[in-house]
Amino acid sequence: MRIAPVSGLPDSLDRDACAALDAGDPLAPMRGRFVLDEGLIYLDGNSLGALPAATPPRLARVVGEEWGRGLIGSWNDAGWIEAPRRLGDKVAGLIGADAGEVLVADSTSVNLFKLLAGAVRARPGRRVVLSHADNFPADLYVAQGLCELLDGGCELRTVAPAELAGALDADVAVLMVTHVDYATGAVQDMAALSAAARGCGALSLWDLSHSTAALPVDLGGCGADLAVGCGYKYLNGGPGAPAFLYVARRLQETIRSPLRGWMGHAEPFAFEPGHRHAPGVQGFLCGTPPILGMAALEAALDLWLEVDLDAVRAKSVRLGDLLIRLVDERCAGLGLTVASPREGARRGSQVALRHPDGYRVVRALIDRGVVGDFRSPDIVRLGLAPLYLRHVDVWEAVETLREVLATRAHDRPEYAVRAAVT
Ligand SMILES: *Cc1c(COP(=O)(O)O)cnc(C)c1O
After folding, report:
1. Within a domain: residue 5?
2. Cα 54 to middle of ligand 1, angstroms
3. Rounded to the nearest whole angstrom, what is the distance from the C-alpha of residue 78 to the centroid of ligand 1?
4. Nearest one of 103, 63, 401, 78 to 257, comparing CA atoms
5. How many domains does the chain have?
6. Closest Cα to atom 14, ligand 1: which residue?
7. d(CA 215, CA 316)
8. Which member of 16, 193, 263, 319 has the lowest number of beta carbons within 10 Å of its beta carbon?
9. pLDDT greater at residue 6 or residue 285
10. Which atom from ligand 1 is nearest to the alpha carbon of 210?
11. What is the β-pairing status of strands 370-371 and 41-42?
């Protein structure tokens, strides 16, 4: 069967055709800005982004000079105290938010808790958190914990992703949606769902963990109310990097974080016994920011500020189309099915393939220098980070996948044992 050519891809695909796509790729020089072993094909930048070359010297400076010599004076002299807001403004440019609407702090889960609790309390008389049953489990856990804490004042309701809009009613306080599905990469319609939530009097809360720096996001244009997102995935902020939260300016004085620390106080150094919220997004800060983690994230954000996200999206869609077409053409009959949307516009920056032995297949690929990951029950997840991934890498990855499956290399007994972290 002949497969119709996808836009931007030539009719006939081989390694040379992929190399030609790289030669014409305006983002190709960005690969040199990352530390990557030659020969490694890294398809897990959606889980832990690669190390920007600018990060180690930046960290050395912050540790050696700002901390080592500047000591406590660096809170002011090196701008540490403003870091949550300053980095927030840099993230804002990537997600369609305005300066002063984004704060970098804490982890995604903690930020989700802060905003979810604030949203439920801002909609008295409504007690339902509506989400999709296939949401990233941690997000559901956070909602479950809040419901338990509010002891009947809050209830988590989950439906299939396609049924979210229809499940909105007068009981829903907040609609909590992950924009790009962590497993399949399917993209939710942010504008339509935000409008539907607003139409029924609920707030919308978006998890942008797999969206930020993977595709252009327009929180403001979509009328989204609240959002959280991750610093260590496509943003390349480093393992456990601080996360971010977004509160639309129109809501900043009505929604309150339940986690009150001195850094979110209107006058932290007044040391008053009672809490008064700092104005604006600053009021969502809790405790002292982790400056070393913030420094690594800021080095990555400064790299992102140089990048045209539309070019990133165009390459990401092309890499995904290429991967899917190569799987169709070269891995037919080997037990793979494509779990991601085939239409680029509906897919984030990853391709998920189902295989009954998915876990073993991922282990065999990693042994051959192709690093993807496995998501239960049967998904081989291949992340496509366009700043450092080449079209020839996709070619090599699919050839390696074909070789593994065709020779049943994944049947080796050691691949059956589950590692703790994959
Ligand atoms: C990665 C991810 C998180 C991560 O949360 P942590 O607090 O960093 O563990 C949360 N939500 C989604 C949807 C994610 O993909």
Report:
1. no
2. 25
3. 30
4. 103
5. 2
6. 209
7. 8
8. 16
9. 285
10. 15
11. parallel
- Domain assignment present for residue 78? The answer is yes
CB 272 within 8 A of CB 140: no
Query: What Cα–Cα distance (Å) separates residue 321 from each residue in 4, 317, 345, 395?
Result: 11, 6, 11, 12
**Ligand 1, from 136, 206, 233: best to mutate by most atoms within 8 Å of Cβ?**
136
Query: CA-CA distances (angstroms) from residue 62 to 33, 49, 296?
Result: 20, 21, 9
Q: Do 286 and 338 belong together in one domain?
A: no
Q: Tell whether 370 and 347 lie within a shared domain.
A: yes
Q: Which domain, by its residues, includes 156?
A: 57-304
The answer to whether residues 331 and 307 touch, using CB atoms and an 8 Å cutoff, is: no
**pLDDT score at 418:** 73
Å from CA of 21 to ligand 1 middle: 33
In this structure, the answer to whether residues 299 and 328 fall within a common structural domain is no
Nearest CA to ligand 1 atom 10: 108
Residue 32 tokens, joined: 């040199």
The SS3 assignment for 366 reads helix
Residues with active-site annotation: 136, 207, 232-233, 381
How far is the centre of ligand 1, averaged over its atoms, from the C-alpha of 207 (Å)? Answer: 8
The SS3 call for residue 157 is strand
Do residue 275 and residue 130 come from a single domain? yes
With 90 as the cut, is the pLDDT of residue 422 above it?
no
DSSP 8-65: TS-SS--HHHHHHHHHT-TTGGGGGGEE--TT-EE--TTTSPPEETTHHHHHHHIIII
**For 207-230, what is the mean pLDDT?**
98
Of 47, 48, 109, the residue with max ligand 1 atoms within 8 A of its CB, to mutate for a pocket test, comes to 109
- CATH number of the domain where residue 320 is located: 3.90.1150.10
Task: Specify the pLDDT at position 6.
Answer: 45
Model confidence at 20, pLDDT cuts 50, 70, 90, reads very high
Residues near ligand 1 with C-beta < 6 Å?
107-109, 136, 138-139, 178, 182, 207, 209-210, 230, 243
Q: Whose CA is nearest to atom 15 of ligand 1?
A: 209
Looking at ligand 1, which atom is closest to the CA of residue 135? 13
What percent of the chain clears pLDDT 90, i.e. is strictly above it?
96
Nearest CA to ligand 1 atom 2: 209
pLDDT for position 152: 83
Q: Is the pTM of this model over 0.85?
A: yes
- Residue 127 has a pLDDT of 96
Find tokens 């220098």 and name the residue.
369
